[in-house]
Amino acid sequence: MSELERYYRVLELEPGATLEEVNQAYKDLVFVWHPDRIPLDNLRLQQKAQDKLKAINEARDKLRSFKAKYQVSQTSSPTQQKKPSQTQQPPKKSSDLSGKDYSRANLSNKDLSGRNLSYSNLNGANLSDTFMHKVNLRGADLSEANLFRANLLLADLREANLRNANLIGADLSGADLRGADFTGARIRSGDRLLVKLIGANLSGAIMPDGTIHA
């Protein structure tokens, strides 16, 4: 089995599946294996879920990269391919969204993975079930935003404003949260913490109750 076939297998797809099918399979599997759906006291299944999420994210990223390269090669004419001097320019990506205003925007279920949204205005935005793996939200205004079940694995949230944000069900595993402001943010139901923070860096972050994390 080739490495590419293995990535399709991880997402439970047949080789050659479309990008849309890859994205949908990714969303379905993340929903199934989200750690919040597993009892906290079941350490074996919690670890299995973390391993599954890691494999699912890797497979999706690799297949997306492969398909992007394939599309570029398909759009190159034979003449262009024979002339190295006429280098095919990579398609422009709207990955740099730093400083943009998305106040009150509905971004639910969107894929913002890897985007640069540093210092952007997402005040009151709906980001429920949004995929933001490795997104850069440094210094962003996420106050009162709805991040219900958002995937923020390995996200950069340094100095981000998360005041009064809804973080129930969000996955912030491995995220850099240094200096972030969580004052008034919703992270619990009763005494139960409902935000995934495995491996997250909370140094200097202002917690929902106003205390500063050591």
From TrEMBL:
Q: Which InterPro entries match?
A: 5peptide_repeat, DnaJ_domain, J_dom_sf, Pentapeptide-BTB/POZ_domain
CDD domains associated with the record:
DnaJ
SUPFAM superfamilies, from UniProt?
Answer: Chaperone J-domain, Pentapeptide repeat-like
Q: Where is the composition biased (Basic and acidic residues)?
A: 93-103
Compositionally biased region (Low complexity): 73-92
At the top level, the lineage of the source is: Bacteria
* Residue stretches making up the J domain: 6-76
According to the record, the residues making up region (Disordered) are 68-110
List the PANTHER family hit by this protein, alphabetically: BTB_POZ DOMAIN-CONTAINING PROTEIN KCTD9 (PTHR14136:SF17)
The protein in question is named Pentapeptide repeat-containing protein
Organism, per UniProt?
Plectonema radiosum NIES-515
- Tell me the classification of the organism that encodes this protein: Bacteria, Bacillati, Cyanobacteriota, Cyanophyceae, Oscillatoriophycideae
